[in-house]
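Quick note —
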Amino acid sequence: MQVGESASTDRFIVESGPAARVAELIEPALSDRGFRLVRVVVSGGDNATLQIMAERTDGTMTIEDCETISKEVSPLLDVHDPIVGAYRLEVSSPGLDRPLVRPSDFEDWAGHEAKIEVKELIDGRRRFRGILEGFEDGEVRIEVDLGAAGKNVIGIPVDLVGEARLVLTDDLIREALRRAKKGNALSDGAEAPVTDIEEE
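Predicted structure written out below.
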């Protein structure tokens, strides 16, 4: 049984601290413009970098899209000031070895290799790597090598997933290029010019 459309497209990996404040602030604006937020990362202390990773609902992203998002969110960040001090704003696509943050991501990229790190041990393991088999009944389905037991498809409850991302392979590169060509977009790391923002 597949998850409902809304639950499937809701992010299950969410930020904390200043990054969470930024995500809450910009996600509705991105959605209104036809984009999905993938991740927000705030790194560094003084002269921090605020990275906003986003994509169109079809998974594509152009440099022009990155610039559009930058222009859309900059006024919101200026008005609400969710980050203390000066920072650099970077807007980019998720890239080829993208993080997987929605149940639908595991469906969209089924058949490709992924790495998953869980929040607590499952059968003595915290890290799993294998071929994605989709998402079903609240679980990420992935074929992993269990040693003596051989390769098996296991289910990992989505609420235990701490981090998940695709593994860069030749097959993934070919698929990403096919999708980019279909969407006439740069989905392999499009990035807008960096904007420096000073606190007033």
